[in-house]
Design goal:
- This protein is of the alpha+beta class and 128 residues long.
- The protein is built from four helices and five strands.
- It has a domain at 4-25 and 64-127.
- The strands form two sheets. Strands 3-5-4 form a three-stranded antiparallel β-sheet. A two-stranded antiparallel sheet has the order 1-2.
- The longest helix is centred in the middle third of the chain and has 12 residues, at 76-87.
Length: 128
């Protein structure tokens, strides 16, 4: 049985979907002690992060799309397979379920990201 953590990290016991994607794990955000700023606002305390952390996050999201599925819901594996079939990416893709039918699709190859972004929704995308 596949766990949620293994799906997010791209590991698969069966060697199928997203087994060990390249280009995603090295983009890990590192937070140092000096990057955390505790603010005491008017009524509630808050935790802020330095510009360096925000820049790292922005860099990691450079080839990512946030997608909202309308209509009936489908399973994670089914959606991943359909995206692979429709987009036919050169590199790897990473699919992250954000709940409420929202997903992040992250492309390891910038040309895949640009092609999907420029081509826009295809008529066949309605089948998802």
């Amino acid at each position: 049985m596949e766990t949620y953590a293994s799906k997010v990290m791209g590991h698969n016991n069966r060697g199928g979907i997203g087994s060990e994607p390249k280009g995603f794990l090295e983009d890990e955000v590192t937070i140092m002690k000096e990057d955390i700023i505790f603010c005491r606002g008017l009524s509630i305390p808050s935790i802020c992060f330095s510009n360096r952390v925000h820049d790292q996050i922005d860099h990691n999201m450079r080839n990512a799309l946030i997608v909202h599925l309308l209509g009936r819901s489908i399973g994670y594996n089914n959606l991943f397979n359909r995206i692979q079939a429709l987009c036919k990416p050169i590199g790897n893709i990473q699919l992250i379920d954000l709940d409420n039918s929202y997903f992040i699709i992250s492309f390891s190859n910038e040309s895949d990201y640009t092609r999907v972004l420029i081509d826009g929704p295809r008529p066949s995308m309605a089948a998802i």
